[in-house]
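S2.1 Query sequence (Phosphatase PAP2 family protein)
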Amino acid sequence: PEYKVPLYLWATGVSISRVYLRRHWPSDIIVGAIIGYASGKLFYKIREKF
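Output structure tokens follow.
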């Protein structure tokens, strides 16, 4: 939890740089963020049960 804000800022910076350097489309970044966020939430919920 204490690393949440710095990690989100880091991920945002990397995402912006990937679009700026024309290595990814903005849609790639958005879909990747959704998948990453959802998988993190799912992992956390599964971990709580065990």
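The longest helix spans residues 26-49. Residues 4-49 form one domain.
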